[in-house]
Structure formats: structure tokens, C-alpha cells
Amino acid sequence: MLTLLYKVVRPLLFHLDPEEAHELVMGTLPFARWLAALAPLRPDPALACRVGPLTFAGPVGLAAGLDKDGVGIRTWEALGFGAIEVGTVTGHAQKGNPRPRLFRLKEQRALINRMGFNNEGAIALAANLQRLRDTGHWPKVPVGANLGKSKVIGNDEAVLDYLNSLRALKDRADYFVINVSSPNTPGLRDLQEREPLQRLLEAAVPEAGRTPVFLKLAPDLEDDALAEAVNVAVESGCGGIIATNTTLSRPGETARAEQYGGLSGEPLKPLARQKIRVALQAAAGRVPVIGVGGVSSADDVRELLKMGCAATQLYTALIYEGPGLVARIHRDLLLPGG
Ligand SMILES: Cc1cc2nc3c(=O)[nH]c(=O)nc-3n(C[C@H](O)[C@H](O)[C@H](O)COP(=O)(O)O)c2cc1C
Fold it and tell me: What distance in Å separates the CA atoms of residue 52 and residue 50, rounded to the nearest whole number?
């Protein structure tokens, strides 16, 4: 039903500028929530998976970036996501980079974005999360808050900026993600190096209290650097790894596409798989790894789970396949042989 509906709506949305289409869809979320609530698409309990101390309702979660300010959480739950990651939010509200900053690569089922963490800030997200709690609408699936560095803050003050966000959101999210891997904030990815990373995580983990802190890494790290970052995360008490963010590389047919920004979707898949494997090896079972990058089918999810991932996330495939995708993947996972 949702898939059929999206077959009609998608060509109309794809006629619009990608960010206008995004804004239009986000504006319909309260309405979509009522529709979805008529027949909520909760994953079968057999699909629940442990991710450290958390239980994801199913192995497909919403990746960060789609709902930066946490305005559509009940809709994502109704669409069947096993967990929902909101953000990236920053300590300071910020507008992000000038438009255009989001590009479709239709043939390749990919996106390139250089949004630059446009968001209302950690305090606004905290208010949105608190409202869900106060009204008894907190979802039955874990909600993670993904945190980044404000653009106006230099790397030398980054720790304080992340801590400000953590303090604003403390006890309001089920898990936190320290995002040092988005390509669109100058200098951010330098925080993936051992020393600054250690300083950041050793401050963030205690500040989060009992709430697990995950670290999200870039696929453009060399294998050694990625393994090193995973080790720092484990040593600093992180509860898990999310691999991977978007890539600055332009593999295969994306070579002539928009040069500035992070690539996601189908063409990211081979690189993400390879880096997820490195992350799994480095983690060596000490912390769970959530696999992200080009996930669009039950086969993709099966492959990542077989490799050893505790769960997966997706974003770009939702834009191409529509709101029925997550429930379809979860259903397909239950088919014989799944
Ligand atoms: C438009 C867009 C915005 C994104 N914004 C964020 C973000 O704010 N924080 C983050 O950690 N990842 C962000 N991502 C990365 C995704 O969470 C995910 O790691 C990446 O897109 C790979 O997954 P996919 O191929 O399923 O899209 C963004 C991705 C896209 C396409």
C-alpha cells in the first residue's frame, strides 16, 4: 500500500529540488503519522536484536541526518524502524551551508549532500524529546541522539561544545552518538585521530552517565586509522561503533558527479562493507558495530548481520524506495531462508 502510494508520489517529489522535496515530506509527517498509526508496521518480535545494553525492535534503524531535530519520531516508529537516530545536532543552532547542498544521483540510487549540520541546536532537540516523554508518546524503540561540533567552535574547544549538547540531552535519549565523521564541517574529521578522539570520548562517556555512547566513523579513514579509532573508542568506554558515514570519494560512475559533499546510497556500499569489516575486526566482539552505507534490501541486512554487525541503519534507500521499505525488509527477513 505505502509502496504503491510512493510509486505515484515519487515522480512528483523528484521533480522538485531535493531539499524542497525533503521539506515537503517533513511537513506532512504529522499527517503521515495518523495514516501509519492505522496500521503500525512494528517488526515481528523475532527480529529484535541486542545492541549492547539496548534492544532494537528490528535490525533496520533510521540513520542520522534525515530528522535532525527529532520532529518525526512517532512517524519513524510507525513505519517500522527498529531504532531511530535523530540529529546531528550541535551545541549552537546553525543554518548549515548555502543551498544547493543536496543532490540526487537517480541512476546510481545515491545522494550527495553538503548540508553542514543545519539544525535547531541540542536544546531544541531536548525539548522535542522531553515533550514525547511528558505526553506518554516515547516510542517503544530506542531513540539515539547524534551529536556534532558547531561550526563556530574551533577544534580546540570541541570537547566543551559536545559536552554542552550532552548536558542538554542527558537522560532524554536512549543512546548518544559522537559524530566525528561528517565531511561538511571543516576540521571535524580530524577529531578521529587518536589524541583528540581520546580527549573527546574520555570526557563524553562519563558525562553521558548510564546512557551508552556510540562513535560514528568515516569510510574514508585508512584501515589502520579506522582500527585505531575503534580501539580508542573501546578504551574510552564507548558502547559501540557506527560505521559508516558518507564518503568524499566518487567511486565508479559517480566520478563526474557533484564534487563537494558526502556520497551515500548504492555506490557507497562496497566501500562501507570493507570498512565495516575492518571495524568488526578491530572491535573483536568487545563492542557492537552497527553497519550503515548502501543498505536497501533484506539481502544487504542479512549480509551485514552475517558479517557480525549487531544491527544496521539506512537513509538514502528510503528516498528511492519510499516509506514501505523498512517494513518490507523486516518482512523479507522472516521469509524461509531469511
Ligand atoms: C542528506 C543526508 C544528511 C546526512 N546527515 C547526517 C548527519 O547529520 N549526521 C550523521 O551522522 N550522518 C548523516 N548522514 C549520513 C547517514 O546517516 C549515513 O551514515 C550515510 O548516508 C550512509 O547510509 P545510506 O547509504 O543508507 O544513506 C547524512 C546522509 C544524508 C544522505
Answer: 6
Cβ of residue 111 lying under 6 Å from some atom of ligand 1: yes
pLDDT in tens, 307-320: 999 999 999 999 99
Query: Which residue's C-alpha comes closest to atom 6 of ligand 1?
Result: 65
Angle at which helices 122-134 and 158-169 pack, to 10 degrees?
Answer: 20
CB 60 near ligand 1, within 6 Å:
no
The CA distance from 137 to 45, in Å, is 20
Ligand 1 contact via 292 beta carbon (within 6 Å): yes
The SS3 assignment for 177 reads: strand
Question: What's the pLDDT at 71?
Answer: 95
* Pocket mutation for ligand 1, best pick of 246, 271, 304 (most atoms within 8 Å of C-beta): 246
pLDDT digits (tens, 9 = 90+) for 96-144: 999 999 999 999 999 999 999 999 999 999 999 999 999 999 999 999 9
CATH superfamily of 2-333: Aldolase class I (3.20.20.70)
The protein residue with its alpha carbon nearest to ligand 1, atom 2, reads: 65
- In short, whether 280's Cβ falls inside 6 Å of ligand 1 is no
The domain ranges of the chain are: 2-333
- Are the beta carbons of 138 and 174 closer than 8 angstroms? no
Q: For CA atoms 168, 174, 180, 182, give the dihedral sign.
A: negative
Residue 338 has pLDDT above 70, yes or no: no
Pocket test of ligand 1: the residue of 23, 94, 315 to mutate, having most ligand atoms within 8 Å of its CB, is 315
